[in-house]
Every structure is written in C-alpha cells, then in structure tokens.
Amino acid sequence: MNGMPGLPSGTQPIFILPEGTLRNTGKGAQKSNIAAARAVGDTVRTTLGPKGMDKMLVDSMGDIVITNDGVTILEEMEIEHPAAKMLVEVAKTQEEEVGDGTTTAVVIAAELLKRAEDLIDQEVHPTVIAKGYKMAREESLKILNEGAEKVDLSKDKNVLKQIAITAMTGKSAERASEHLAQLAMDAVLLVRENDGSVDDENIKLEKKTGGGVEDTELIMGVVVDKEIIHSGMPKVVKDAKIALLDVALEVKETETDAKIEITSPDQLEAFLEQEDKMLKKMVEKVVASGANLIFCQKGIEDPAQHYLQKAGVAATRRVKKSDMDALARATGARVVTNLDALSKDDLGYAKLVEEKKVAGERMVFVRECKSPKAVSILIRGGTEHVIDEIERAMTDAIGGIAAALETGRVTAGGGAPEAEVARKLRVFSQKYSGREQLAIQAFADALESIPRTLAENAGLDPIDILVELRAAHEKGGKHSGVDVYAGNVVDMWKAGVIEPLKIKTQAIKSASEAAEMLLRIDDIVTASKLSGGGPQMPPGGMDGM
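and the corresponding structure tokens:
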C-alpha cells in the first residue's frame, strides 16, 4: 500500500510512510469523501421543510435531544470522518452568519458532491468540475440578488412576521408560531441599532419549564436569574432607580500579609465597630446617589444587607457580567467600579422591578424600561425538550429577521429561489461548450434537490412536483414553490412564505466552497500515531460516520 508504484519487477518496494498508515488515493479517495458527505446530507435531509421529521439523539450519558435543527443534529452526532466534518462546518458557518438555513446548506453541499461523482464516473476531471461549480456559484449569487425583493422592513412589519413564522414552521414551536413570531419581531426591532444592525446577543432567551408555549413572554428589560438577598427588602420596586455595582460591599482584606494583634475584648469590639462603620459608609454612598435598587456583580456582606434594608433599598448580588451588560443596555445605567464615583447620573430606570417565583425558582424581572437596547424572552413549555426546541426555533426566527433587516432584501421560500436559479443556470450553461457546461448543469440539478426534498418529506411525488415547478418558472412565476400542505405549486410570496435573501446566498456560498475543496482531494493519508493503535479513520466513507 505504501510502496512506490512503477518500480521494475523484482525490485524491493520503498516504503515512505510508517507501518500502520492507511493511504487512499485517486478515485478511491474522492469516492470515500463523497460517500461520507452524502451520508451527512442524508442524515439531515428528512428534517427539511414544514413536513420534515425530527431526530432523537441520545448520548452515552442517556441525555436526549429532540430536534430538526440541522446544525444541532450534526453537532450532537459528534461526526468523526474528516470529509463529513467539513459539512458540519458548512452548517456551523450558516448558523453563525444567518442563524437559519443550516439544513438547506448541508443538503445542497451533499447534492453537489453526488452530482460531481456522476461526472467523475464519466471521466470529467475533478478540477474541471470545481471550475464549473465556481462559475455556477458566482452566477447563482447574481441571479439571487437580481430576483430578490426590496422591502422597507421598518414600515412593512408584516413581512418580518412572515419571515419569523417561516423560520419556525416545521418545528415544535409551530402551533404557537403566530405568538412567538410577534415576540421575535418586537424583540429585534427594540434592540436594533440606528444603523440597522442587530446584535442578537442583546436578546436574552431565558428558559423555564412549566406553563405552555403560549405563556412565553417578552420582557421590555432583563430577567436576572437571582433573588432579592434580604427577606426584609421590597420584592416589588416601582419607578426603580438602578445602580449597577462592580464593587463588593464588603470590607477589603489587605493586599499584603498584615497581622492585627488584639489583646483585649475592647480592642476586638472597636475593630468590629470600625468594620461596621466602613460598611455603613459604603451603603450611605449608595443611598446618597438616590438608588433604590442595586445589582452587584460581587458580594454584599450581612451588615451591609441590613443597612440597605433599613434604607429601603433592594439588592441582588453575584450577578453575571453578561447580565450586568444587559442591564446597562436596558436601563441606561452605567456599571460603577468605584463607590466614591457613584452619582445619580450613573443610575438607570425601570418602571417596575419585581421578584417572582417561576418554576420553583425566584427571578428578578426588570420590566418596562424606557427604550431598552437589551430585552429578554422568557420561554415556557411543558417539558425541557419542548423549551429547548422552542429556543432553537426562536434563535432561527431572530436570526432570520436580523438578516433581513441587515440587507433589506428578501425572497420567497418553498424552494422557489432554488428552482429559479436552476432554470437560469441551465440557460447560462449554454454559453460554454466544454465540460464546464456539464458541471454548471450539475450545479443546477443540485439546487433543485431543495424543492425535491420538500416534496419527498411531504409524501408528494417529487417528479410530478418538479415538472410542475419548472413549468411555472418557465412561465415567469419566479416565486412559484412547493406548497407541502396543498400538495401543489403555488406563489410562495402570496402564501406568505418569505425568507431573508442572506439565507440563500450564504447557503450556496458555503455549500459550493466546501464541495469544491473536497473535489480537489485525491489522497487521504491516515496516520496511526495519534492513539498508538490502529489507524483512526477507516478508508471506507460510510464506516467513518
């Protein structure tokens, strides 16, 4: 296996690789990679679309994840095969860039490789296929941009809501999608910056079991998973003037190794009195600023709690830094690191702050902030698996709305843009007479796998649907897509199935680049040094999954 080919007969073969190394070259390497990538595509393919099914993933500890979110499935599966890992990267990129469309991206990548395999069998060289795919990718992005609809999303809020509903369709959240979509849209519009950008980290998703999905609510402020520290402090603060302290209300220990020697009870009493005075002074500074509620990132000693309670100031301690930042953005307060510098200008405002018991745990709700740039959505549901899946659906919806606001361009869903791009790519391929033409046509066929998969997952005949879909697009119906409920081809824009353009462009970019890279590999060398045993990866594509 490791010998040098082409040596005269009877010559001793020369080994250049250590014993136990596996090497897979030429078509064998390409077929192995393509088989692995196709196996990944087949894994998530059945989850695509409103009629897609869910996967139950059980780990070695017995923990269960039930989802149809592409990137979650691939991450939880802990895929080992190196080529398959590249498709997981495609899903991760899609998740980070847009937040939705991960399954679409993986299915397209796997389909591109499947079509490439057919061409390799017809003796088309992989670099020619990669070149054709690159040309097709650039033309696809051009077609998508030309066919996208420009929408003034700040005025046309209905489009935003439809984007959110489209993102949630097919997930467990679907039955309450109208309510959840409204929450996602309101949240994104609240935290949107003046330049139109949206940082989804400013929308905090807090999960608590209990109630139903419809009990999920948007808090115009922040939910802090802490409680008011003293039983005597007010549990409801109206017109809260909020101080955010990144300083401990505790007596500091000296930096150096100092030793205090106390020889009499009087000295001990004086020492404790002095500590008490220091804490009292700290509290007086807080009270002098006008604050009636403090969130402290560090500790608050018992005497300080007592003095705060006497002054009618409510407090929570050991608040996470991320929550402190969110509170600052929501209430307009500034985080103070030096008590001497605390003034009324550093305080934030919320109309109502209350401690409530949710699912057996006390939480502090900071509500009705004036113009919060950070908000929270408290997700409720019957079981942990339900709220986990609703969180994923909300992440997709928020990501979709944010992507639409960022570019101001949207497109129809239901496989309509893929079918339109495929049609125009076939026309585009006529400009080329060489083998690149075959690669461009293969790219078009791969894109049509999206409407075909939507039809398959809905139990429809994919050939009938594709014929009907192509006919509709030939007649100029660029928004014609697969209606999985009615079982025919309809205008998706009129049906309200709308997606941000960025989902499609990013999916095609990532999928095509990954496919091109895998096609260029013709040699896989698997070393055995890693674990001191046999090789890590079997040469077979499917076995490595």
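(Above: one complete record from the training split.) Residues 152-204+376-407 form a domain with the GROEL; domain 2 fold (CATH 3.30.260.10).
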